[in-house]
């Protein structure tokens, strides 16, 4: 970060927001804004979030100066949001090596279950679940390693999300990366905005899917994919 940027007194969040507005870019909770963050600004942003989190704790009437349990809570929460649970907003897409489909594979492939962790954008409560990805390749499809599907899922889910939009975001990303004849994604998750608060229902799950290409057009392929997903007893 330039020295003049550090000394002008403008909060780093304001600078990032102004860059986004000037570029006419959206910065919703589930958007990635990494390209608008300059070197060194994440550390400054962490410090800013820590100060504001401390203000939140003070407004909750918690004596962080004398309470040994919450003395460092503001810093811990700031690190958790920026470096862990919302990391997918502030870091660039993980590097994904793509290979040509040299053997002309054209059979159904399923990856999963991939465990994913996110947070609902309504209450910032955890969303914990599993994802299954079905790919029907063709001779022009790019092949990526199995672990890369998990990395892409983690990157997309590492933002405040609603499940319906998250699955579409992941589908769009995989579609661009692999260019398959068909793509299917199913996600099943527990939403702690229902389990921890509200109705406090610990057993409720949300399941949704995205079907593209051959999975949308061919009911037999769709049934084959869904039949191969493990079912709970």
Question: What keyword list fits this structure?
Answer:
5-stranded mixed beta sheet; GTP Cyclohydrolase I, Chain A, domain 1; 42% helix; single chain; globular; GTP Cyclohydrolase I, domain 2; alpha+beta; 20% strand; disordered N terminus; two-stranded antiparallel ribbon; 10 helices; 233 residues
Structure, described:
The protein is of the alpha+beta class and 233 residues long. It folds into two domains: 3-90, GTP Cyclohydrolase I, Chain A, domain 1 (Orthogonal Bundle), CATH 1.10.286; 99-227, GTP Cyclohydrolase I, domain 2, CATH 3.30.1130.10. It contains ten helices and seven strands. The strands form two sheets. The chain has a five-stranded mixed β-sheet. It has a two-stranded antiparallel sheet with strand order 1-4. Strand 2 and strand 3 (126-136) form a beta hairpin. The termini are far apart.
The CATH superfamily of the largest domain appears as: GTP cyclohydrolase I, C-terminal domain/NADPH-dependent 7-cyano-7-deazaguanine reductase, N-terminal domain
Briefly note the structural class of the backbone.
alpha+beta
Report the radius of gyration as a whole number of Å: 21 Å
User: CATH class of the largest domain, please?
Assistant: Alpha Beta
